[in-house]
Amino acid sequence: MINRIVRWADRQTLSTRLKWVSLATIASVTLAYTLLLIAIQVGFLTSSLLAQSQAQASVVSENLAAALVFEDHDGAAAILTALRVVPEVESATAYDMKQAAFAHFARTPGAPEAFLATPERPDYLLDWQAIRVFQPVWVEQQRVGTVVLRSSLASVYAKLGLNLALTVPLMLLAMAAAWAILSRLQIFVTAPINALSKVSQEISLRGDYSLRTRVSPSPDIGALATAFNGMLDRIEQRERDLEAEIGERKRIEARLDRLAHFDPVTKLHNRHFFNERLQTAISTAQQTRHSAVLMFVDLDNFKAVNDTLGHDIGDELLCLVARRLAIELRSDDVISRIGGDEFAILLENASDPEVGPRIAKKCLAALGEPISINGNEIHIGASIGMSMFPDHGTDIHALLKYADMAMYQAKTSGKNAYRIFTPSMQDEAKKRFTIDNNLRRALERDEFLLLYQPQIDPCSGEIVSVEALIRWHHPEAGMINPLDFIPIAEETGIIVPIGEWVLRQACHDLKCWQAQGYELGIAVNLSGRQLRDESFVGSVLAVLQETGIGPQSVELELTESMLMDAAPVIMERLHALRAQGIALAIDDFGTGYSSMSYLKNLPVGTLKIDRSFVSGLPDHAEDAAIVRAIIALAGSLQMEVVAEGIETLEQGQFLQTLGCKKFQGYFYGKPQSASQIGQLLAQRTRPSSAGLVQA
Ligand code: C2E
Ligand code: MG
Ligand code: MG
């Protein structure tokens, strides 16, 4: 029961509990007070009944004395019966000294009680029903009998009942009034607490920590409200701090996301994003059975621009390139910068096989136009490789690899072109990979050898110089031509030690010929990668010193593209070599579409006319015009000219009439081993050159 009450109370509001507690207190106090009153009243009524009974018993005992002495039963009975008028008296009995009932009166008929009184007994007996009063009957101080008067307590109970009948409704009324008053007054206690609770509820509902509760002047509730508000202050502050921290974290996350997906230079997406998009595009295309085109765009001359004009211009150039490419694309095509000077383009829903080539041509045309930055007119150009889904591959790695292979092909095929992936490119890539692996071991295994091609003085027919041309004697593949491995060696950087080996070997062979009394020079081809190596000049001089060759005997052949792209530091290296007495020549001159103006600032002494112009001589008018122009240009710049690729007597004669002073070509000698050159030198004159000399 108590448990039930406790459980019920637990579910009630504070104000209900307060009211019930107060009511219970009032009720118990009222009840205790009423009970006390009842007890007092019972005592008072009983004692007044006792006094009244004793007085009546005393009167009756005096009247009975004579009747007892004279044994007048009727008289005694009449006296006792007179008590009938007293409603409380239930019975009255007179006993003689033998304790026998002498006379008896009873309101309700019945035999008298046995005599109870003894001297030791009290003069009255009280129980729940009645009071018995024992009154001795005296005659001249001699006891002649006893009167026992029995008065009922019914009248006492009746009065009590009446009192209670009046008190209980009054009490209930008082309780009801108390409930009503409590209902009103409890607000004074519960209002501040309710206000607190309301604020807490609102806060938990709206999450608004700026709300505050009113502080009551009451010291304890006021202290509670103040503490509550203080707690809210701290929560609000923490909330603000947290919000600031979350805001900061979100900003950082957004930045990281940007960094993870965007290229800060061009503001395009980056490789990471592109790969994700490509993956999604492939999944979608697989479901919708659409095609997609992946393009790799690699800028052709970016490195040169970066080295010559600086990184700021390089960055600016990348932005402009990005913009030009983006203009050529539809809004739903994806373009990203995936590397230093590499862009990737994704064309989705490209079911028409012409879409890829068309866009590639447009991109090439856009990048073919010169770009002007800070007064510099930059010719950038690009090589584009393309792979298609699902024709070439169905996974992202294969498509990326194939587009890269196609791009490599475009690059090696002379740049500023696009190529679509073909399976044969994979074989070439494999070959390249094998070559690269093998190149690394070729040096250690001594698989390289040098052939020398004579350079002839047309007047004397003597060999004035030889050009060192490398060959790779591969144990399985046999003799490999330089054009098949030099570009790969350049890419991987292994050309640097190979180039050093070539120079050392060439100097070593030259030293042998010089030791035999022949005065000739040597021409050695260089690659751009060697020039970019900062220890290059030092290593050339070290080889010369090591082999005992004078710098005047050495000519290094550079290409136009190496010189056009040359950064200031490379120019410094060339000047340093020239200052040491080493001659520099421009190989394959005329093929580099370069402006002539750069020539005058170069420390170059020789132009080697490319054999593509020589092959058309003497009949091809344009070739003749070009060769003539090159010879005239060299003359005006005080440079020497070497004609290479001379295969016929007519070509040689024609070039001689134009004033060319050095000839090289199959007609005068193919590239051959050092010992064969030794034999040629020993002969001093060769049949093929003899004819020319005579002519
Ligand atoms: P290059 O420096 O222009 O060399 C001339 C190339 O033309 C040689 O091819 C030579 O064999 C060939 N040639 C010479 N005369 C004639 C001719 O009358 N007719 C025809 N059809 N061809 C002729 P090779 O030896 O295959 O070398 C190709 C290129 O490889 C060279 O062109 C050079 O750029 C590069 N190279 C060769 N050796 C080295 C080297 O040691 N280092 C570097 N970096 N490049 C080298
Ligand atoms: Mg050469
Ligand atoms: Mg050449």
Largest sheet: 9 strands, mixed
What do the pLDDT scores average to? Answer: 89
Flag low-confidence runs.
Answer: 685-695
User: What is the number of beta strands?
Assistant: 22
Helix and strand layout, with pairings?
Layout: H1 2-11, H2 14-69, H3 73-81, E1 89-96, E2 101-106, E3 124-126, E4 130-139, E5 142-152, H4 154-206, H5 219-261, E6 269-270, H6 271-288, E7 292-299, H7 302-309, H8 311-327, E8 334-339, E9 342-347, H9 355-368, E10 371-373, E11 376-378, E12 382-389, H10 396-412, E13 418-420, H11 423-442, E14 448-456, E15 463-474, E16 478-480, H12 482-492, H13 495-515, E17 521-525, H14 528-532, H15 536-547, E18 554-559, H16 560-564, H17 568-579, E19 583-589, E20 606-609, H18 611-614, H19 621-636, E21 640-644, H20 649-657, E22 662-664, H21 674-683, H22 687-694
Helix pairs in contact: 2-3, 2-4, 7-8, 11-12, 13-15
This protein binds ligand C2E and magnesium ion (2 copies).
Q: How would you concisely characterize the structure shown here?
A:
The protein is an alpha/beta fold and 695 residues long.
